[in-house]
């Protein structure tokens, strides 16, 4: 038996078509959503993601600005740029590419981003709103995974979902979104005992650990849907996920490919959030106003 390879390109394409149409409709009312992406330092992987983000904005008609700052940029200068972007009406979304150089405190930087422009959903207020189920931006990678599950017709409610990884960017918000969809959720991490046994209980297995090809068939229940968030540059120079794709393909029900699914889906959700931010800015409906009452 061989698993279905989830067609990421097709899903990404159809969500982006929808976003493009909605951006087009806003433009007819004289509104163009705008995204600012800030990259500090010259990490080559980050440079690729930032280029992809700008290109994807163009494709759907979102205005974008990219700021490339040298690695030694003082924290104050970065905060000053964020202050300017916070006040700029052309900019609806601000994304500061992580990780930042060591001399910069990531929490301080994230705190400085206007809550209503935090299209990553990394600001503590937006993270809090997510926890209590209030309307806020959805974190891009986890929201992209939910969209993939829904568009492949995967039932989530009542199913056992196991998330491997507990980072603030992926694992934790992923668990929260699956819970919102009424899955029974287990989160694994580096201190989890008997991880193969735990993972094998999953109907839906989401893997975000940053260990190239670590998750093989021993972690997978026959027929499970396996979502690979990992992005690793292997010693041979090739890109691979955290899942041993060829091995898992033989037992799983469906598997996402890397590259070609969760990565581009993450960018798609970023576009969606930027569109949503522009809508809210123009409706005068901001979560900061809600939060201040
Ligand atoms: N496609 C996309 O859009 C995105 C892809 N990524 C990719 O996803 C992967 C994860 O990213 P991120 O969450 O930021 O990574 P982090 O390094 O921040 O977190 C990794 C998590 O995995 C856990 N972990 C590490 N090794 C093991 C192990 N051997 N067994 C069990 N758990 C383990 C860690 O546990 P502990 O907490 O105990 O240390 C931690 O919770 C990376 O490959 C990254 O490149 C990330 C963001 C977006
Ligand atoms: N503030 C912030 N927000 C993020 O969302 C964020 C971040 N920082 N730091 C890094 C991670 C990683 N990430 C990816 C986005 C797209 C692809 C992507 O498009 N991947 C392509 C391949 C790209 C390639 O060829 O290298 C694919 O999987 O098909 C991957 C990874 C967002 N992240
Ligand atoms: Mg730092």
UniProtKB/TrEMBL annotation:
The gene is folD. It comes from Paenibacillus contaminans. Residues 139-281 form the Tetrahydrofolate dehydrogenase/cyclohydrolase NAD(P)-binding domain. HAMAP family: THF_DHG_CYH. One of its GO terms (biological process) is methionine biosynthetic process. Residues 6-120 form the Tetrahydrofolate dehydrogenase/cyclohydrolase catalytic domain. Keywords: Amino-acid biosynthesis, Histidine biosynthesis, Hydrolase, Methionine biosynthesis, Multifunctional enzyme, NADP, One-carbon metabolism, Oxidoreductase, Purine biosynthesis. The keyword Lipid biosynthesis does not apply. It comes from the Bacteria. It catalyses: (6R)-5,10-methenyltetrahydrofolate + H2O = (6R)-10-formyltetrahydrofolate + H(+); (6R)-5,10-methylene-5,6,7,8-tetrahydrofolate + NADP(+) = (6R)-5,10-methenyltetrahydrofolate + NADPH. Homodimer. This is Bifunctional protein FolD. InterPro entries: Aminoacid_DH-like_N_sf, NAD(P)-bd_dom_sf, THF_DH/CycHdrlase, THF_DH/CycHdrlase_cat_dom, THF_DH/CycHdrlase_CS, THF_DH/CycHdrlase_NAD-bd_dom.
């Amino acid at each position: 038996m061989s698993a279905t390879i989830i067609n990421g390109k097709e899903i990404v394409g159809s969500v982006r078509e929808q976003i493009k149409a909605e951006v087009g409709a806003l433009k007819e009312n004289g509104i163009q959503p705008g995204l600012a992406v800030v990259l500090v330092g010259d990490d080559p992987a980050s440079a690729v993601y930032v280029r992809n983000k700008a290109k994807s904005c163009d494709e759907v008609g979102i205005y974008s600005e990219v700021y490339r700052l040298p690695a030694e940029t003082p924290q104050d200068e970065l905060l000053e740029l964020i202050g300017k972007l916070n006040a700029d009406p052309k900019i609806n979304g601000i994304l500061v590419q992580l990780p930042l150089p060591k001399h910069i405190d990531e929490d301080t930087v994230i705190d400085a981003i206007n809550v209503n422009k935090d299209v990553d959903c990394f600001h503590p207020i937006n993270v809090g709103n997510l926890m209590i189920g209030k309307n806020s931006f959805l974190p891009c990678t986890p929201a992209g995974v939910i969209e993939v599950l829904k568009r492949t017709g995967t039932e989530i409610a009542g199913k056992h979902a196991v998330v491997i990884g507990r980072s603030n960017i992926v694992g934790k918000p992923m668990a929260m979104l699956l819970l919102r969809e009424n899955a029974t959720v287990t989160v694994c991490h580096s201190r989890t005992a008997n991880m193969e046994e735990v993972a094998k209980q999953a109907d839906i297995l989401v893997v975000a650990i940053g260990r190239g090809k670590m998750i093989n068939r021993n972690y997978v229940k026959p027929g499970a849907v396996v979502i690979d968030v990992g992005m690793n540059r292997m010693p041979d120079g090739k890109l691979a996920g955290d899942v041993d794709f060829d091995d898992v393909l033989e037992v799983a029900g469906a598997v996402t490919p890397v590259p070609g699914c969760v990565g581009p889906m993450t960018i798609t959700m970023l576009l969606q959030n930027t569109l949503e931010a522009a809508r809210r800015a123009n409706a005068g409906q901001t979560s900061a106003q809600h939060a201040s009452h």
